[in-house]
Design brief:
Layout: E1 6-14, E2 18-21, H1 22-26, H2 33-40, E3 44-47, H3 54-68, E4 78-82, H4 93-101, E5 108-111, H5 117-130, E6 137-144, E7 162-171, E8 177-185, E9 193-194, H6 206-210, E10 217-218, H7 220-242, E11 251-254, H8 259-269, H9 280-283, H10 290-300, E12 309-316, E13 320-327
Parallel strand pairs: 4-5, 4-6, 11-12
Antiparallel strand pairs: 1-7, 2-3, 6-7, 8-13, 9-10, 12-13
Helix pairs in contact: 3-4, 7-8
């Protein structure tokens, strides 16, 4: 079978208008701008309006991606939405995005890999296109995490924001696109990072709501320990598969969780930290949207050019992790 070069043909992103600064949090919980900045690197984040759901953010990002790819929705054969904050528990957010884009009839599904979702989605799309099943797939990572954070929990509510990033994935010029991908997971049942109630294991009731179990919970130290190992490990394994050395990378786009995690990964990958693109100070942790949002912003700034070798790498609840090495195609 002829090997196909699969990559991103157009990338778009969207963040809501509402800005939630560290100073805004000072007014509602016991924290400070200095405390948040020094421990996370975050200064502000975006929150969706009451009229916006995850599908709305995803649709806006998708329209921009199509425009960047110089394509119309009629050119798309499938929609994959990576999210852990779907519009509804029953009905894929991807199907709602399909309706908003006017893409009747094409297959759509959601993918849940938390903050690794965009990388997982690109990998799934690449495999389907390489196998000749579909030609162009729209991969979207989108979240409205502001809906599931506990605004009384100062250790977690300050970390997260809302946003979406979308990529048109298809065949690109030979030798460009995704050169390798590495995915992994370490399933755990220790409540390291999850929303405890609301699923089949523990349906919501008066007691779970009173206990605030309908909001996301995170054991920060456990997540940090996992992340500082998983992020560089996944990147190094993807580099090995692609037969590329770390110093050949022009830029790395990590999951935007915490500046300290990224600094630790820099040392373990042996790549200067200034090669790691960071925008978490503006957007916080946007989970499945974060890697694509960072890449989209860098593209708009002209920081990524055709032929550049880049890495997309992330980790998230599950626990999941993954990395993709790409030779940028446009």
């Amino acid at each position: 079978m002829e090997f196909k070069s699969i990559g991103i043909k157009g990338l778009g992103y969207y963040v809501p208008e509402k800005v939630m600064t560290n100073f805004d949090f000072e007014k509602i919980i016991d924290t400070s701008d200095e405390w948040i900045r020094t421990r996370t690197g975050i200064e502000e984040r975006r929150f969706a309006s009451s009229e916006q759901a995850t599908s709305d953010l995803c649709a806006s990002a998708a329209k921009q991606a199509l425009e960047k790819a110089n394509m119309s929705i009629e050119d798309i054969d499938m929609i994959i939405v990576a999210t852990c904050t779907p519009d509804y528990l029953v009905q894929a957010t991807a199907c709602l995005v399909q309706q908003k884009l006017g893409a009747k009839g094409i297959p759509c599904f959601d993918l849940t890999a938390a903050c690794s979702g965009f990388i997982y989605g690109l990998t799934v799309a690449g495999g389907m296109i390489r196998g000749g099943i579909y030609k162009n797939i729209l991969v979207i990572g989108g979240e409205t995490l502001s809906r599931i954070i506990d605004m009384q929990d100062r250790n977690t509510c300050i970390l997260f924001g809302d946003g979406a990033a979308a990529a048109v994935v298809g065949e690109v010029e030979e030798g460009f696109g995704m050169l390798s991908t590495y995915l992994g997971a370490e399933g755990e049942d220790d409540d390291i990072l999850r929303t405890p109630a609301g699923g089949s294991k523990k349906p919501n009731n008066i007691q779970t709501i009173e206990n605030r179990e309908n909001f996301m919970r995170m054991k920060g130290q456990d997540v940090f320990k996992f992340a500082v190992h998983a992020l560089p490990s996944a990147t190094n394994k993807a580099l090995k598969i692609a037969n590329i050395k770390a110093e050949e990378l022009s830029m790395i786009f990590p999951h935007q969780a915490n500046v300290r995690i990224i600094e630790a990964a820099s040392k373990r990958i042996h790549v200067p930290v200034d090669k790691f693109y960071m925008n978490l100070k503006k957007y916080g942790n946007t989970s499945a949207a974060s890697v694509g949002l960072a890449l989209g912003e860098a593209l708009d700034k002209g920081l990524v050019k055709k032929g550049d070798l880049i890495a997309l790498t992330g980790f998230g609840a599950g626990l999941t992790y993954g990395s993709i090495i790409m030779k940028w195609a446009y």
